[in-house]
């Protein structure tokens, strides 16, 4: 199962050349992970962080920037869960718009106990939903 | 006539205390001005900047931060055009959510020729739409 | 007594027109307040936030953007303490470079108990240093 | 030859858990690339972008986030040129502080003609300085 969310390139995202400044892609990517947690895993970021005291920091990132995105571009961000570990998961992410892929990324997230500042196994509810959505690489 | 747009407090917006870091409100405010230009004035930011070479930089800003916003808060941003000058306009802006106002601001924008880097009179089409939406202060 | 700190306009700060996107000025301003707390008031932000659980949120902001700043500009940020209240203070701030003022601002900060999320009187050590540096408006 | 530059974790960089929000690391990394261009390659970003109309967009990024960085941490960013192509280069980057590595990254930059929006060979002056600083992987 593939998770999709949408975003738009805002003035705040572009650089002096009028294209997305790459750190802004990661703000968009983080927002996509928030949407995925809320909509696909059933736990919104506020509940996760504030009530359950769980964070999902990014520990590894491989990104290929394939083509630039300009002010006003409407992008679809696609997330596929490729692997689920005891305390981590690996997502394949793609940004695309107008039939052109802008970037593809592999992102490894870890499930963290915010107060103890250490990795913990995924809670059962989150793991169950993640397993449902698993899309092993072709 | 009042222009409204919506936003959500994302992880990228909050600080170590879990509430919106105030520079992020201005990223949200700028996005609201983009929505207002596109939807109320009929000229999206890409067309305005790239094709027509017009910018609308902020030259004056008065802001009262009334109450904090936390991760996940859904906010409505309201813009009212208070005054229209030859080459500028003054907007009254409010951010609110859950029946609580978060900030109110007065924002003065100037119409700028990007290449010449100087103020120019509003183009007729933008001025006409702005005049339609004028809401003088009570 | 006037507090000064320096900054440089980075690629991350500029917009499609090659000049500072105004929300980025507030990131620079916040960094200047951090420097002021550490160097003029004797309490760095980490100690203040993490150990003493005090925050200094901005509650009011008046800004005039006087002239644009471009990539590579080296700016001096000047802070003057204009008024000290029981739980607040008002600062006059100026950004300048190459003999040209870029913006001037009035900023009101409040002393906040982070855990209780309410305003508290300035701690004696911070107030004493603030009083030493007081520069009432001419 | 190794290029080093320093940065400090600011309030603007940290998230609700009090540690650096990872997109902010890339703002720091971009600033380090600016320092490297100005100090090691002899071409500051303003001259490069505005006068020579050359950009150096990031086209590939591999990052391992090894340990978190907190508000106030002083970090040293190290850049080593690993490979120089006709129109690209690969840098090995490390962020460290207090004897602890925070992240390591491999970054591929491309030399771009901003107006034509296409890759071009490195100008001779930049290539010569890059070659001097080459540090092939151990």
From TrEMBL, chains A, B, C, D:
Listed CDD domains: 4HBT (cd00586)
Gene3D superfamilies linked: Hotdog Thioesterase
Molecular functions per Gene Ontology: fatty acyl-CoA hydrolase activity
InterPro entries noted in UniProt: 4-hydroxybenzoyl-CoA_TE, HotDog_dom_sf
SUPFAM superfamilies registered for this protein in UniProt: Thioesterase/thiol ester dehydrase-isomerase
Matching PANTHER family: 4-HYDROXYBENZOYL-COA THIOESTERASE FAMILY MEMBER, LONG-CHAIN ACYL-COA THIOESTERASE FADM
Name of protein: Thioesterase superfamily protein
Species whose genome carries this gene: Sphingobium cloacae
């Amino acid at each position: 199962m593939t998770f999709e969310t949408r975003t738009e390139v805002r003035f705040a995202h572009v650089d002096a050349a009028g294209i997305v400044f790459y750190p802004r892609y990661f703000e968009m990517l983080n927002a996509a992970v928030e949407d995925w947690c809320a909509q696909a895993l059933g736990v919104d970021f506020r509940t996760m962080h504030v009530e359950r005291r769980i964070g999902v920091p990014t520990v590894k990132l491989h990104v290929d920037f394939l083509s630039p995105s300009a002010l006003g571009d409407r992008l679809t961000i696609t997330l596929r869960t490729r692997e689920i570990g005891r305390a981590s998961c690996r997502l394949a992410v793609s940004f695309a718009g107008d039939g052109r892929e802008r970037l593809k990324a592999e992102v490894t997230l870890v499930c963290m106990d915010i107060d103890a500042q250490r990795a913990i196994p995924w809670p059962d509810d989150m793991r169950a939903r993640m397993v449902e959505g698993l899309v092993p690489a072709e």
